[in-house]
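Notes to self after the call with IL:
- keep both proteins in one doc
- input above output, always
- annotate only the second one for now

Protein 1:
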Amino acid sequence: MRTCWVLLGILAVGCGGAGAQATRGSFAATTRQADAPRVTRLARPGWVEVVAQVIASNDESPASARNRALIVARRAAVQEVAGVAVTSGTVSFLSLRAGETSELAQMLGFTRSEAVIVDERPGPERIEPIQGGYRLEVSLQARVLDRRAEADPGFRIEIDLGGERFLHGDLLTLSVRSTRDVRLIAVNVTDEGAVVLLPNRFLSEVVVGAEQRLVFPGPDLAARGVVLRAQVPPGERRVLETLLVIAVRADRRVRAWESAGVSQADFRVEEGGEAVRMLGDILAPLADLPPKDWTMAQVAYEVTAR
């Protein structure tokens, strides 16, 4: 039996310049009147509580406004703990479609090598009617891991997919190189869910030597029919996918990953809230490791319909 994994499209962007510009302008206009986030450091190390708000029109759903407010809250949490200005390309992209961005996309937007939100607990929300719309306020407790002081600056991984733009149906090959001996875990995240690519039932342990290059799927798996194929979901013209790779020193074992059973299935797939929880379960154990013992990288790539 041939095994095939099809990459799903994620983070669908606007289909035209005018639409994207309108969204960008609307985002700027609605957030300009909101109060600045209020951040309080909690007694637990790395934990902060953020109260953030946005202004929404009557045409915007509370769910959409909530996503925008959570973006503001997560950005404020990272900047409070790590002092890192969150201006990555991912977050810039999120701002364009803030009202439609999934929780999974937001988690990736605030997952960086310098500072990582490894746990969070949403609190109460408050809606206040105003002329022409409403003000939505959210509270969020977040645990932010600041790696900069203790990280190993020479510990890096490089991800290569052979390009950043692909057409529907193209075959992809993941290539990873590390400067240290490592164990790898690779997760592909979409707006609909997340898939653990490595490890899996075929490669239950993914150990790569320093300066060696891992190619997935390699010749053995390719001979068994395992492929990575770019795909645009029905009804979409262009999508963006994100691949997250975490590397832990080879002499370290992350028991939480093993107990979660990420290597038991062909490729573990979760959707919706379960995918959010799975990604959280993968990130949370990193807080218990010395920052010098792990690193991460992520790459976004675009898939266009033929």
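Protein 2 (the one to annotate):
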Amino acid sequence: MKAVVYDFCESRAGEHARKFLGEWRGSLTCDDFSGYKALIASGVTEVGCLARARRKFFDLHACSKSQIGGLALEQFARVYDIEREVKDMDAVQRQAARQYKAKPLLDALHQWMTLQRQKVPNGSATAKALDYSLRRWVALTRFVDDGQLPVDHNWIENQIRPIALGRSNWLFTGSLRAGQRAAAVMSLIQSARMNGHDPYAYLKDILTRLPTQQANRIEELLPYRWQPYFA
């Protein structure tokens, strides 16, 4: 099943994420946003985003040509080279390859970061970049032990980008209910695209069929099950 689900909330409070996920207790790929902490404390497994950690060193190197930043980027690049190699493998093969190739690189990177952190002053830009990774290292490297987990959440960010680009528009949805309806419509549109459908053709077809569709067959209209009426 391929699907993306958007939710509209009045704020960034952590209670919204907890309400949305309910009793679900799986692996959550996320950044260091404090709103997720209660979820993690309740049994959700935190999976870090390696791209976020890499970005700290990219910014560090871009601003000051930091040697530490540059060396860290080289090691992250090697991990991503491995990820490109294992992209089309099944989960079992991917896990084995990650264990054999990526784990030694990451172990060495962790040792190097720990050593460098002892040499730089607290509060410096370099210290902050190192601390982000060191503080979240277990979550950042959890993908190594599970071939089903992604190395980062770039894919999710790509699904959010259409919303983020039009963020100012969502300030004027009219009401909380209107925002929730907009989120539902965007969920259908993006899920239709994800499943290879033309969003306009998909929406036109399901809105035409919806009034007479039997309640026990409503799932046939979901993007990942939909077949055009004329097929």
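Annotation: The beta strands are 27-29, 45-47. The longest strand covers residues 27-29.
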